[in-house]
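user: Please review this fold.
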Amino acid sequence: MADRIGKPVSQRQLRVGEMIRQSLGMIFARNEAKVPNLETNTITVTEVKMSQDLKIAKAYVLPLGGKDSELVIKKLKECSFLIRKALSKKIIMKYLPKILFAKDDSFEYAEKIENLIKQTNK
């Protein structure tokens, strides 16, 4: 597995990314970040990718049912400081990474591939 530059992803990046993914999931499930006008208990964190220096975390999220995903991502980006503050209480690191949120398209991509396979099998 390699990141976009072509360098392999280290075990530390994977471990820290998974730790942040689990913590973000708990924060959203318990609504600990207190994001205004957003029900965070319906948000799923599918993956977190870390930068090489562990200072940037890109969290791929998907709201329940996939509806209003653009609005949810926008709200999360606006209130990322609240989420980061809640995350700082869960994770002890020298530098807590900046969190970037992105929509997870992997389920849509998998469904598209599955439909293509079904079409070729007919």
The helical segments are 11-30, 69-78, 80-90, 106-121.
